[in-house]
């Protein structure tokens, strides 16, 4: 008898908890493709490359030249106090050059955040608006699912909200630029 009451109570709790759960809509969106198709993206890419060449690359060359100059001067120095000072400076420059990759990566990531942050925010705001309009609770990258109904892909709706046509959309230019003309069939002999 106790067992029947326990099973009835457990069944009632399962039924009650099931009615409390609301349906969750899950969709996908390829924000990376959307951001890459924003008109201002190419300009930001060029600015980032220019920053690397002008700032980070130039700084490295300057530090390396300073290291070589001070190393040469240290080897030629005759005064013990000058030699000790140069040894200390050369050691500092050597550690700086060894840690350069980490430093350059951090500077590059900071510049990326500065340049691309507004584009990411613009795409994210559009995604949030479309998800809310269509009643989606969760939106993930397309690669997160092995199978997903095409109707749950919000990429095109977000692109429309952003005023762009992502690659692969009807009427969109291919990623390589202008569409290529179709090849003519070979003449038969």
Automatic annotation (TrEMBL):
InterPro entries: Chaperone_Skp, Skp_dom_sf. One of its GO terms (molecular function) is unfolded protein binding. Coiled coil: none annotated. GO terms for cellular component: cytosol. Transmembrane segments: none annotated. Keywords: Signal. Gene3D superfamilies: Skp domain. Residues 1-23 form the signal peptide. Residues 168-189 are annotated as: Disordered. One of its GO terms (biological process) is protein stabilization. The keyword Signal applies. It comes from the Bacteria. Belongs to the Skp family. PANTHER family: CHAPERONE PROTEIN SKP. This is Periplasmic chaperone for outer membrane proteins Skp. It comes from Niabella drilacis (strain DSM 25811 / CCM 8410 / CCUG 62505 / LMG 26954 / E90).
